[in-house]
Design a protein that fits this description.
The complex is a heterodimer of chains A (about 425) and B (about 110). Chain A has about 425 residues and is mainly alpha-helical. Chain A contains 14 helices and 2 strands; from the N terminus they run ααββαααααααααααα. In chain A, helix 2 packs parallel to helix 4, helix 7 (about 205-225) packs antiparallel against helix 8 and helix 7 (about 205-225) packs parallel to helix 9. The longest helix of chain A is centred in the last third of the chain and has 30 residues, at about 355-385. With about 110 residues, chain B is an alpha+beta fold. In chain B, about 20% of the residues lie in helices and about 35% in strands. Chain B has helices spanning about 15-20, 70-80, and strands at about 1-10, 30-35, 40-45, 50-55, 55-65, 90-95. In chain B, the strands form 2 sheets. Chain B has a 4-stranded antiparallel beta sheet, covered by helices on one side. Chain B has a two-stranded antiparallel ribbon with strand order 3-4. The longest helix of chain B has 12 residues, at about 70-80. The chains are: A mainly alpha (about 425), B alpha+beta (about 110).
Chain lengths: ~425, ~110
């Protein structure tokens, strides 16, 4: 029996989460230099297109089909076969399987789109499209199966065997994208002028607009992951708001003391770092726990993004420093703050009298996902580099990728830029 | 005729425009530009990383004047632009062979 309230919320959440990827395109597009802004945005839109095709053909099936050893799903839902009329969810909270497939598709889309921030201004567009297809297939789908495909104890190994908690994708989306972004940035190398030129965002109003769209969509991401319209969704939603708001303030506070001025890029980055830290934890901890995690995430993110200059990797738009770092803090935060009073399906963390059992499971999940994602992404990126090439020509990079790859430029104010 | 070119701090442009209008100058051209003089650039910290900024934002003002007025206008610009601090800019005067008003074809002082 399909629960119409729950179904309505999951349908609405799917639209909210899909809205995040154009939001990410705007967030990232404003952050790069004007000459490659369209290319940056185009990478997110390619993620929407390619991932959706894969999801229909075999992606949903391999991620959420019947588990093979907790590692990968089966082929029964290929082409979304056998999904019409099927339902998922507990008795009294069932929703159509197609609404669940749509909801999960939007997660796959934004996760791969996030990676584009690590290789801004310098990736061959055709190679990126190929990368999206390979990465979703070989990295995202297995990890989504591990952590999201709960099948009464016989599903994905992280959720059903290890018993680590991840409400909305701290491993699948955040740590996964952070580790993969690091691998991509290392394989592609630095932009010409990295560390020498400041390469500041060319349009901060776009960045703030994009951050707002992401913040808005994140309510679908986190509260939608309850897969029901009830008290758990409400807890997840307010926790998301609390952590995002808190982190946006501590990010700029830290910046004010370190650099002298609170920046708009800082407040936008902080809001995202807060949303990231609460992603895995929002359905397992209480609002004060969310506040603490948010306060920590802002400071940690602000510090983390400056480290790339010291280590010398050009993670251009700070995917590692924001998604990787906050994702890890959020997963560890569950081990500390989780309480069954918030979610009976959860566990008690260290501060709720549950001891270190949950914390150690969380850490195992973090390490395995990060290692698998980094290594697999590194191999895929290397393979593309060695065959069709992944890095744009240096001259093209300096000219700007918009006119080179897309025959367009973001700011054609005089109407003349294509005539000369 | 003379062309007076002034490179000044952006914050001084409005004051200079008003002073020139009061002095009877009929037209001018301004453009945003960047550069450095003896002040050189400076370092800035952004997102935890330090950068050298070589070119400082300035505004270039160009005014065409009659030979007889050039000394007065020159002094007016310099006095208005002067804040006494480093980076106030530079003003120079160059001779102009002729000027033509496009619409009427007037030449020389008539075109000013």
């Amino acid at each position: 029996m399909i629960n119409s309230g729950d179904t309505a919320w999951v349908l609405a959440s799917s639209a909210l989460v899909l809205f995040m990827t154009p939001g990410l395109a705007i967030f990232y597009g404003g952050m790069v230099r004007a000459k490659s802004a369209l290319n940056m945005m185009m990478m997110s839109f390619a993620a929407i297109g390619v991932t959706t095709i894969i999801w229909v053909l075999y992606g949903y099936s391999l991620a959420f089909g019947k588990s093979h050893g907790g590692l990968i799903g089966g082929f029964e839902y290929m082409g979304l076969a056998q999904t019409l009329g099927a339902v998922v969810g507990a008795e009294a909270h069932q929703i159509p399987m197609l609404s669940f497939a749509m909801f999960q598709l939007t997660f796959a889309i934004i996760t791969v789109a996030l990676l584009s921030g690590a290789i801004a201004d310098r990736a061959k567009y055709s190679s990126w499209v190929l990368f999206v297809a390979l990465w979703v297939t070989l990295v995202y789908i297995p990890i989504a199966h591990w952590a999201f495909a709960s099948q009464n104890g016989t599903g994905g190994w992280i959720v059903d065997k290890l018993g680590a908690l991840d409400f909305a994708g701290g491993t699948v989306v955040e740590i996964n994208s952070g580790a993969a972004a690091l691998a991509l940035a290392l394989v592609l190398g630095k932009r010409d002028g990295f560390k020498r030129d400041s390469m500041r965002p060319h349009n901060m109003p776009l960045v703030l607009l994009g951050a707002g769209m992401l913040w808005f969509g994140w309510f679908g991401f986190n509260a939608g992951s309850a897969l029901s319209a009830g008290s758990l969704a409400a807890t997840a939603m307010i926790n998301t708001q609390i952590a995002s708001a808190a982190a946006s303030m501590t990010w700029v506070l830290f910046e004010k003391f370190r650099d002298g001025k609170p920046t708009t890029l800082g407040v936008a980055s902080g809001a995202i770092a807060g949303a990231v830290v609460i992603t895995p934890a929002c359905g397992f901890i209480n609002p004060l726990g969310a506040l603490i995690l948010g306060l920590i995430a802002g400071v940690a993110g602000s510090y983390a993004v400056s480290r790339k200059y010291k280590f010398g990797y050009d993670d251009s738009l700070d995917v590692v420093g924001i998604h990787g770092v906050s994702g890890i803090i959020g997963m560890i935060g569950i081990g500390l703050f989780a309480t069954v009073t918030v979610n009976a399906a959860g566990k008690d963390g260290l501060f709720s009298g549950g001891g270190t059992a949950l914390l150690s499971r969380q850490i195992i999940a973090i390490i395995v996902v990060a290692l698998f994602s980094f290594c697999a992404t590194w191999l895929i990126a290397k393979a593309i580099s060695a065959t069709i090439g992944f890095r744009a020509l240096r001259d093209d990079e300096i000219t700007g990728l918009d006119t080179i790859y897309h025959a367009e430029s973001a700011y054609d104010i005089t109407g003349n830029s294509n005539r000369y | 005729m003379k062309l007076i070119t002034a490179i000044v701090k952006p914050g001084k442009v409005d004051d200079i425009k008003k002073a020139l209008q009061i002095a009877g100058v009929h037209g001018m051209t301004v453009s945003e530009t960047r550069g450095f003089g003896r002040q050189k650039g400076h370092t800035e910290i952004y997102r935890g990383a330090e950068y050298t900024v070589d070119f400082i934002p300035k505004v270039r003002i160009e005014v065409l004047v009659d030979d007889a007025d050039s000394a007065e206008i020159l002094n007016l610009i310099v006095d208005t632009a002067n804040s006494g601090s480093i980076g106030d800019g530079k003003v120079w005067v160059t001779p102009v062979e002729t000027v033509v008003r496009v619409r009427t074809g007037e030449r020389g002082n008539d075109a000013l």
